[in-house]
Automatic annotation (TrEMBL):
Molecular function (Gene Ontology), one example: steroid hydroxylase activity
UniProt name for this protein: Cytochrome P450
Entry similarity comment: Belongs to the cytochrome P450 family.
InterPro entries, alphabetized: Cyt_P450, Cyt_P450_B, Cyt_P450_CS, Cyt_P450_sf
Short name of one Pfam family: p450
PROSITE patterns the record matches: CYTOCHROME_P450
Superkingdom as given in the UniProt entry: Bacteria
Organism listed in the record: Nonomuraea jiangxiensis
Keywords, ordered alphabetically: Heme, Iron, Metal-binding, Monooxygenase, Oxidoreductase
CDD domains the record matches: CYP142-like
Key word Repeat present: no
Ranges in a coiled coil: none
Spans traversing the lipid bilayer: none
Biological processes, Gene Ontology terms: cholesterol catabolic process
Length: 413
């Protein structure tokens, strides 16, 4: 594989369906071209940043490196379509897209719901849901697609319960989330076109516009009510701003966690000594959860745009040029992680960047850790045996994703 071929993988959704080849490419780039210019048909050119130190430096300098106008990698056609919608005031614009005081003020609306005090209050509910979903595995008769029948449902129940949405709406939210993040995947996407992607957003907005009106008329004390009735400078959020907030919470709040849970179980199956180690020492659950997050890195990238001429790792970057921060690469950086390609449930320290860093650090990180720990604390002691029952399959993506199928056979105690 050449360096240029490796660089093109960032703009190739199918690259994330072959983890071995993807990491071969990322390892090559870290070694030979850690700040690599990518110019491929269909995408506005960008610089791919693959080393942990460079990603961390960019994340922490939020004055120099801006989320706007290009927070994630998309095709030039889709970028243009979404920008046109935003210009009309009808597009998705969440805290992911924002910088400076605007980001700080909007982020504060939901932040308290994810602080330690709130997490302690949620702990009983999360453990109850973890137990319910492991019990459901017993009902499947010793074989299931762990992604489709367990991993996608458990964190969805958690985050939508936090929002206060009825369980009857959960299947709709799951389908829309998979269509949004799996837009480039033939199985989950809605055609893989800008029109398909924007139609998913339209469906999300229609649902959340109704929710906003309901919660403003009849607040119910949940996170959805908090968002609907939040005020900035004395005024309620504009309805599309509220809808954008809901979309972020409802999608990122469960898809990334479900990917980590599925990828974490696959890692334990492929590394049976680590599964035995975790079973014999439940005190390793917290470090095991961190290792699963590092191992899977469900958010594949975010983009930043330089607000001034600068350098990254000695490479000149001009004002207005965009960089792609590769989290799967940073989280396998040989300069930071000892034996980075070894799955180690006791890894410490574990300075992964899967939740980002700086002002855009993942607001739901504590909840994700709680959910992952609770599920495996319930599952591991009850697993008498587990093995693959077919080949796992990954979602084609350039942004967020992981396993879409994990067929397993198991015996539960």
């Amino acid at each position: 594989m050449s360096v240029s071929e490796a660089g093109r993988m960032f703009a190739t959704p199918a690259a994330h369906t072959d983890e071995a080849r993807l990491h071969e490419a990322l390892t090559l780039l870290r070694r030979e071209s850690p700040v690599h210019h990518v110019d491929v048909p269909g995408y506005t050119p960008f610089w791919a940043v693959t080393r942990h130190a460079d990603v961390l430096e960019i994340e922490r300098d939020h004055a120099l490196w801006l989320s706007a106008p290009r927070p994630v990698l998309r095709t030039a056609d889709l970028d243009a379509a979404l920008e046109a919608r935003r210009a009309r005031g009808t597009g998705l614009r969440s805290i992911v897209h924002m910088d400076g005081p605007e980001h700080r003020v909007l982020r504060a609306i939901g932040a308290d719901w994810f602080r330690p005090k709130a997490m302690r209050a949620l702990d009983v509910r999360v453990r109850e849901l973890a137990r319910r979903h492991v019990d459901l595995m017993a009902d499947h008769g010793g074989a299931c697609d762990f992604v489709r029948q367990v991993a996608v449902h458990y964190p969805l129940y958690v985050i939508l319960s936090l929002l206060g949405l009825p369980e009857s709406d959960f299947p709709r939210m799951l389908r829309l989330t998979q269509e949004l993040f799996g837009q480039d995947d033939k199985e989950t996407g809605r055609g893989g076109t800008p029109q398909g992607h924007t139609s998913v957003l339209e469906d999300f907005f229609a649902y959340f516009h109704e929710l906003t009106a309901e919660r403003r008329a009849r607040p119910t004390g949940d996170l959805a009510s908090e968002i609907a009735n939040a005020r900035v400078d004395g005024r309620l959020l504009e309805v599309n701003a509220a809808a954008s907030y809901y979309v972020l919470i409802a999608t990122a709040g469960h898809d990334t966690t479900s990917s980590t849970i599925a990828g974490g179980l696959e890692a334990l199956i492929r590394h049976p000594a680590e599964l035995r180690r975790l079973r014999e020492d439940p005190g390793l659950m917290a470090t095991a959860a961190e290792e699963m997050i590092r191992w899977v890195s469900p958010v594949k990238e975010f983009m930043r745009t330089a607000s001034a001429d600068t350098r990254v790792g000695g490479t000149p970057i001009r004002k207005g040029e965009a960089v792609l921060l590769s989290y799967p690469s940073a989280n396998r950086d040989e300069e930071v992680f000892e034996h980075p390609f070894r799955f180690d449930v006791g890894r410490t320290p574990n300075r992964h960047l899967a939740f980002g860093s700086g002002v855009h650090y993942c607001m739901g990180a504590a909840l994700a850790r709680m959910e992952i720990g609770a599920l495996f604390a319930e599952l591991v002691p009850r697993l008498a045996s587990v093995e693959l029952d077919g080949e796992p399959e990954w979602t084609a993506t350039t942004f967020v994703g992981g396993l879409k199928h994990l067929p397993i056979r198991y015996v539960l105690k």
